[in-house]
Structure formats: structure tokens, C-alpha cells
Design brief:
The protein is α/β, with parallel strands linked by helices and 400 residues long. The protein is built from seven helices and 22 strands. Helices cover 22% and strands 30% of the residues. The strands form four sheets. An eleven-stranded mixed beta sheet has the order 1-2-3-4-6-5-9-13-11-12-14, with helices on both faces. Strands 10, 15, 17, 20 and 22 form a five-stranded antiparallel beta sheet that branches. A four-stranded antiparallel beta sheet has the order 19-18-16-21, with no helix packed on it.
């Protein structure tokens, strides 16, 4: 291991910076509109729309479905569903990762919604939610278009793991939900894949967007929505879900819903329980809420289902993490959605002899929004997240 204690630039960082610089001039014209919109709320100033790029077919057919390299839903026949594959980034073999795309093109013109899942490869309830919504749509009775992508991070999904396995500089795992809107000349395949999807598939076909997720492997979460309620269009959509918690926070740069917001497209993130399983009861809530959103935008017609006004909703702007300081078995003393008070004991931990080696209390008053689902933990693992209201609110970094 080299000694970098004198503050010399790290070679890996230098390499990444060099690659980015090499492609900067080529990407400048493409990225100038998005860059100028950074930090501008969707409600106050909408970015100039991207130049219309016609649907580009690759000439290939996979399992009877045409392969595309770019999509403009205006080119598709109205009044029917279209099943396509989008040609993503190349693998080391030179073949491509293909992403599944379903487009419900209404018989009449209207708003364009984009539904995304599979940004993390272990989040199955999010995929099922989007599939269920699309199966309920009848394009002959719709006004507008709904485009669904259910397997964004294909290599991660093949292993049902959270991160994209990257082979660029040895074994590496990339969290694709820190990569958006991607980089055409990025140092990882995941970054380039994100650029292709965002610029040629997602952004050009969205008047609003919803990026569906679940908790990560080993961690269970409540049914909640994550988004900035300071954006009126986002708040209006969040209020249409009959779920019990809203995390009112924009969270990290690089997440997909923030990439949409940065170019003036209202977007947010539903979180649907635990990873690697199908929580059918939670899925029903998010299907109902998403159909409400489509009705709100006039894409489908019919009476609204249950909304946030029909359930007790707790809104918090921060999540307080409780982190393991010992190794051992974890016993939770509270459940998901439970209210907790500051100073309340929420978990204990035992060593291999059954002795209590740690007790964990909450430093805030709020509601339990996430818990470690695996029975053992080592120091540094998050055990519990408490949704609460921080004064003053601010962006935070949360351990995973």
C-alpha cells in the first residue's frame, strides 16, 4: 500500500478526473441546460425541454420485442401498449445490458408519466408495484402516456444485490442511485448506463416521474414516501398515497428523483418494505396511490382511491440512525411505525454467552421507520432509524 500521507492526489482520483476532463468538451453542449437548472425547484422554474430526439431502433429483436437506443413516445402508435428493450451500456464482452420498457400510449394526448424500478437490484416489491400499475392501464381509455422501466440496474438484479458489480479497477460495487444523471464519459459502466437511460429514455418522456424503491438487504422499512414537500407539484402527489409516513427531505445528490427535479420535472421516491421479498399488502397501497397520481394528472379517469387524508400520516424531515457499537444478537424492543420518545430504549444486544453487551436508546421523539431485519450485527451496522423533525432541517448522510 502506497503512503499518501503527504496529501498528494490519489492516483485513482486523478484517473477519474482525467477521464471526466477528456469528455467534458463533448458533453458541454448536452449538459448546459441541466446544469443551469441545478437547485431550481420544479415549481418555480421549469428547465427548457430537451431537444426532441426521434425514436431510434437498433435493428435487433429480443423475444419478439424491438430494441431501441432512444425513445420519443410521440412516435408510438396511440391506444395500445408497446413492449420494448432499451440498449444500455456494454458489458466487458461487448454485448449490452438491455432494460425492459413498457409504454402505455393513450388514445388521446395528455401528460407523460415515468415509473421506474430496479435502480437497486434487490428491491422486488418496487418492481411488482410498477408491473401491477401497468397491468391495470387500458391505453384505449387513457389521455397521455405512462412509460415504465422495471429493471434499470440489470447486472445487480441478476444477482439480486443492491449495487452494480463493476469490473473496471478490480472488484467494485457501485450504488447506481448515487450516479444520476450519469456521465456519458464516466469512469464506471454504471455512470454511463445512467447517462444513456436518463438522456435517451427517461427525461425526454417525463412530465412527472416516480422512482420506486424498498429497504436494502438486511433492513426492513415501513411504507413511506420520500420527497421534497417544498415543491408544490411533489407535495400534491405525495398526499395522494394512503401510507402512514412521509420523509420530507431531498436527501442525497445523485439520486434519480433529484436528477429529475434538477431539470424541472416533479419526482419523488416511494419506499415499499423489505428487500428481496414481495410485500403484497404494502404493494396494494402504492398501486392505489400511483393510480391516484395518474388520475390527478388526467391520464386515467375514475374516482380517487384512498389518499393520505384517509390514514394517519406522520411527516418528518430527518431520520435519526441508531448504530451498533458491539457485535452480537439484536433484540428490537419497538416495531415499525411505533412512536418513540427521546430516551426510550429501542433495542438490546447480546454476545455469544447471552449476556447483554449493549442497550440502545433513541435521542429523538418520532416514529420507527426502519429496522435491521438480520438477527446479528457488527459495530457500525445501523439497527434502527427514527423519523423525526429536526430544527432546523437540513440535508444529512445516512449509513446503509
Amino acid at each position: 500500500m502506497s503512503d499518501n500521507s503527504k496529501g498528494d492526489p490519489d492516483r485513482r482520483d486523478f484517473l477519474i478526473g482525467s477521464i471526466a476532463a477528456a469528455g467534458a468538451s463533448a458533453a458541454l453542449a448536452i449538459n448546459v441546460d441541466a446544469a443551469s437548472a441545478q437547485g431550481t425547484p420544479a415549481s418555480s422554474a421549469r428547465a427548457a425541454p430537451a431537444a426532441r430526439e426521434a425514436t431510434m431502433y437498433a435493428g435487433d429483436v429480443i423475444q419478439g420485442k424491438k430494441v431501441i437506443r432512444a425513445l420519443d413516445v410521440n412516435d408510438l402508435e396511440p391506444g395500445r401498449k408497446h413492449l420494448l428493450y432499451f440498449e444500455g451500456v456494454q458489458m466487458p464482452t461487448g454485448q449490452h445490458w438491455y432494460v425492459s420498457v413498457t409504454v402505455a400510449k393513450g388514445a388521446k394526448p395528455g401528460k407523460r408519466g415515468v415509473l421506474v424500478s430496479g435502480v437497486h437490484g434487490d428491491e422486488m416489491s418496487s418492481v411488482h408495484t410498477v408491473q401491477t400499475v401497468m397491468n391495470q392501464l387500458n391505453p384505449a381509455e387513457m389521455s397521455g402516456t405512462v412509460t415504465a422501466v422495471t429493471d434499470v440496474s440489470r447486472p445487480a438484479m441478476e444477482g439480486m444485490q443492491r449495487r452494480w458489480p463493476n469490473s473496471g479497477r478490480g472488484a467494485d460495487l457501485v450504488d447506481m442511485n448515487r450516479e444520476w444523471p450519469g456521465n456519458e464519459n464516466g469512469a464506471t459502466a454504471a455512470s454511463r448506463h445512467a447517462w444513456l437511460l436518463f438522456n435517451r429514455l427517461l427525461q425526454p418522456n417525463a412530465d412527472f416521474a416516480i422512482d420506486f424503491h424498498t429497504g436494502t438487504t438486511g433492513f426492513d422499512v415501513t411504507a413511506f414516501n420520500l420527497g421534497g414537500m417544498d415543491v408544490p407539484e411533489v407535495k400534491a402527489m405525495l398526499d395522494l398515497y394512503p401510507v402512514g409516513q412521509i420523509f420530507d427531505n431531498h436527501v442525497y445528490p445523485g439520486v434519480l428523483h433529484n436528477a429529475f427535479l434538477d431539470v424541472g420535472i416533479p419526482a419523488f421516491t416511494p419506499e415499499i418494505g423489505a428487500a428481496r421479498v414481495l410485500n403484497l399488502e404494502m404493494i396494494k397501497l402504492f398501486v392505489e396511490g400511483t393510480m391516484n397520481v395518474l388520475k390527478h394528472h388526467g391520464i386515467v379517469v375514475g374516482p380517487m382511491g384512498r389518499t393520505g387524508s384517509d390514514v394517519r400520516v406522520f411527516v418528518g424531515d430527518s431520520a435519526f440512525p441508531i448504530i451498533a457499537v458491539q457485535g452480537g444478537l439484536v433484540e428490537h424492543l419497538v416495531k415499525l411505525n411505533d412512536k418513540v420518545e427521546s430516551g426510550q430504549k429501542v433495542a438490546i444486544q447480546r454476545n455469544s454467552f447471552g449476556e447483554v453487551v449493549a442497550e440502545y436508546t433513541s435521542s429523538v421523539a418520532g416514529e420507527v421507520t426502519g429496522q435491521r431485519s438480520e438477527a446479528m450485527a457488527e459495530p457500525g451496522n445501523p439497527l434502527t432509524f427514527i423519523l423525526f423533525n429536526k430544527s432546523p432541517p437540513g440535508s444529512e448522510s445516512y449509513p446503509e
